[in-house]
Every structure is written in structure tokens, then in C-alpha cells.
Write a structure and sequence with these properties.
Helix content: 25-40%
CATH class: Alpha Beta
GO biological process, one term: substituted mannan metabolic process
Largest sheet: 8 strands, parallel, barrel
Organism: Actinacidiphila alni
Distance between the termini: 45 Å
Oligomer: single chain
Protein name: Beta-mannanase
Number of domains: 1
Number of strands: 8
Strand content: 5-15%
Order of helices and strands: HHHEHEHEHHHEHEEHEHEH
InterPro entries: GH (IPR017853), GH26_dom (IPR022790), Glyco_hydro_26 (IPR000805)
Family: Belongs to the glycosyl hydrolase 26 family.
CATH topology: TIM Barrel
Number of helices: 12
Length: 382
């Protein structure tokens, strides 16, 4: 069980101090650390005798469930992770989710920072110039989807090859595994990489995805966990997910964005999408964005979420959107939105067997004893 007994035992007299004191140098030092009160992901690798650079394969089929979170300053702010662990009842996340548009340079330190505080980095890589927050989920700003420079055909034609290749080389140099969720929620109409907006056409998405993947392969960036991540089908019921799927050779994980909105259970939220995806692939699944809207069904949904995960072993992890509208999310999805929700979240999370990041005997071990060095930010903008 991934719940740390020392931390849970400290709840009665202040778990915050127990977590933060270790984060400040009294034992916790990230994935390569040896703290007994705040173990990181690599600290929980089976049979681990010394830190080593893990291989991608060690993360693909974990021995438990990944607990991920998307926070305001992820993955750089260690104090934010410490606070999240306190809010989660003393349980540290094992996955850190963050976003990067193609108008921004990739910073290799994002990988370093993730592993330093014990999480597998999950990068949502967005091929657009960025956009403003939509006023409402069903009110999409034209400037967010009308970005001709980022049409899918331009990606396939090579317009961004220099940027893609520079990013791939930086990730290769970092060596440590990174999950990439490229051009997510492609079955919706709220991003310029949807085939239904921005001058795109049917078939363009798969071509663009494969092109990006192939450039990474050519650059030798084999430490990427490729995550194809549609939105749940609720708002896009007439869109064929199969026609947007690039194929098993191009995908390691299938992700899903899905939030509880006026639904009493995650079974209602996710079942139709899971069943649809299973008609064409059985890759491991990660709920790459989730949370529960503040409504009459919120507590019911949160209470049901953790038992639901245990009943659906094809789902190997989840990322909770620990943000609200002020921090860039479409709503207040934080599990700390109320004391009742937080207590239910803590109780449910404590029942899970969390992933160590490894499915079997470690392979590809090296003599490395530290997380990747913290390089000067590099990269290239398109």
C-alpha cells in the first residue's frame, strides 16, 4: 500500500510539518532520496538498491495506480507538491502534469524538477500560439481556434520540424522518461488542431501526430511515453475516435479528459468513451484530466471515483485538475473546494495501491545516482 504510515500517523499533530521538514532537507531528496516519511516514485521501485535512470518500459504497465495532479506551477515548485501532499492526507503524487504551447521553448529542467520531487512528468504539448480563457465551456473564443499558422497540414509539411527536432533532442539528452500528451482533446472543437476547425480536414490529425512522433524517433528520443488523449465523448458524440487514432505503433498510453458534471458517478462520465476506445485498442489508460464540478452530485462522484478505479484495472492512473478559474482552469475542480470534498478525496485515495513506476525487474540500469542535472533552459521557438 502506497499510503505512508509515518505520515498518516503524524496527522494528529501536524502532517504539514512532517512533509515540509523533509522537503527542506531533513531526508527527502526526490526520486533518488531515502526519506522514510516522503518517499518519491523511484524510492518505491521494487528491488531498488541504488538510484538509477529508469527506462520508459518501467513506467508503462505499473504495479498500481498513478496519482497525478495538475497544479499552478507544476512541475517546478517543490513547495507546491509538498502542500498538495498535505492536502491529500500525507500522500505524495507520483505524476506531475504541465502544459506547453508551441510558442514556448521546452525547458529540460521540467524533467529534472519533476523527478526531484518524486513524480513522473506528463507534458501536454499544444501545437498553437496559446489562447485566452473561454468565457464559458460552450463559448469558444474565435481567436483560440482560428490560428492558420498552426493548421495540421503545416505540421505535416515540415513548418515546425526545427522546433520539434530541437525539443526531441533536448528530451533525449535528459534521458529520464517523459510522458507527452500531444494535441489532446482533438475530438472537440475548442483547439485549432481539431479537424473541424481552422481549415483542417479529415485525416489531418493522424498525419500530424505521426509526423511529430517520427521526428522524435529520428532524433533518438526513445524515452517518451506517447499519450493519445481525446476528450470523453459526451460533448462530441458524432466524432469517430477510431479515425483520430494514430495506431498502436504510435501510442503507449491512451489518455482521457473527463470531468464529473451533473453526474453521480465516474462510470457515467467515462464508460461510453472506454467502451468506444476498446473497439480499436487496448492500450493502458490514464485519466489525464479530471475533477468534479461543484454541484449536487460532486460528493457522490468523488466518493465513487476511487472504488471505480479499482474496478477498472485498464485505468492505470489519473491526473486531478487542482486548479480553478483564477489559475487557468475552466472551473473550480480542486479536491480542496470544500472540506467535505477534501475529506472524501483523502479517504478514497488512501484505499488505492499507488504505482511504484515499475511493472517488473528493473532493466536498463545505469550507474547514475542522481536525477538529471539542472541545465540552462534551451530549445527553439517556431
Amino acid at each position: 500500500m502506497a499510503v505512508n504510515a509515518v505520515l498518516l500517523g503524524a496527522l494528529s499533530y501536524g502532517v504539514y510539518a512532517a512533509v515540509v521538514s523533509n522537503a527542506q532537507g531533513n531526508g527527502y531528496s526526490g526520486l533518488g532520496g531515502g526519506s522514510k516519511s516522503a518517499p518519491g516514485l523511484l524510492d518505491r521501485l521494487k528491488g531498488r538498491t541504488e538510484p538509477a535512470i529508469p527506462t520508459k518500459s518501467q513506467f508503462l504497465n505499473p504495479d498500481g495506480i498513478y496519482f497525478g495532479a495538475a497544479t499552478t506551477n507544476a512541475p517546478y515548485d517543490a513547495a507546491e507538491v509538498d502542500k498538495l501532499a498535505v492536502d491529500a492526507g500525507g500522500i505524495r503524487p507520483t505524476m506531475s502534469s504541465y502544459f506547453l504551447s508551441w510558442s514556448q521553448k521546452f525547458n529540460p529542467y521540467s524533467i529534472t524538477a519533476s523527478y526531484e520531487h518524486g513524480t513522473l512528468p506528463l507534458l501536454t504539448w499544444e501545437p498553437w500560439q496559446g489562447g485566452a480563457q473561454n468565457p464559458e465551456p460552450d463559448q469558444i473564443l474565435k481567436s483560440n481556434i482560428d490560428q492558420p499558422a498552426y493548421r495540421l497540414a503545416n505540421i505535416t509539411a515540415g513548418k515546425y520540424d526545427a522546433y520539434i527536432t530541437a525539443t526531441a533532442k533536448a528530451i533525449k539528452a535528459a534521458k529520464w522518461p517523459l510522458a507527452i500528451r500531444f494535441a489532446h482533446e482533438m475530438n472537440g472543437v475548442w483547439y485549432p488542431w481539431s479537424e473541424r476547425v481552422n481549415g483542417n480536414h479529415p485525416g489531418d490529425y493522424v498525419k500530424a501526430y505521426r509526423h511529430v512522433h517520427d521526428l522524435f524517433e529520428q532524433a533518438g528520443a526513445t524515452n517518451v511515453i506517447w499519450t493519445w488523449s481525446p476528450n470523453i465523448v459526451r460533448p462530441a458524440k458524432n466524432v469517430s475516435l477510431e479515425k483520430l487514432y494514430p495506431g498502436d505503433d504510435y501510442v503507449d498510453w491512451v489518455g482521457m479528459t473527463g470531468y464529473g458534471v451533473h453526474e453521480a458517478s465516474p462510470e457515467i462520465t467515462f464508460r461510453a468513451t472506454i467502451d468506444t476506445i476498446h473497439t480499436f485498442t487496448h492500450k493502458p489508460m490514464v485519466i489525464t484530466e479530471t475533477g468534479a464540478q461543484i454541484d449536487a452530485d460532486q460528493l457522490s462522484w468523488v466518493n465513487a471515483f476511487f472504488p471505480w478505479l479499482k474496478k477498472n484495472p485498464e485505468v492505470i492512473g489519473f491526473v486531478w485538475m487542482q486548479k480553478d478559474r483564477d489559475s487557468g482552469a475552466g472551473g473550480n475542480w480542486r479536491f480542496t473546494s470544500s472540506k467535505a470534498e477534501q475529506q472524501d478525496f483523502q479517504a478514497g485515495l488512501a484505499t488505492l495501491h499507488l504505482a511504484t513506476g515499475q511493472s517488473g525487474t528493473p532493466d536498463g540500469r545505469t550507474t547514475s545516482t542522481t536525477p538529471p542535472a539542472s541545465p540552462t533552459p534551451t530549445g527553439s521557438t517556431p
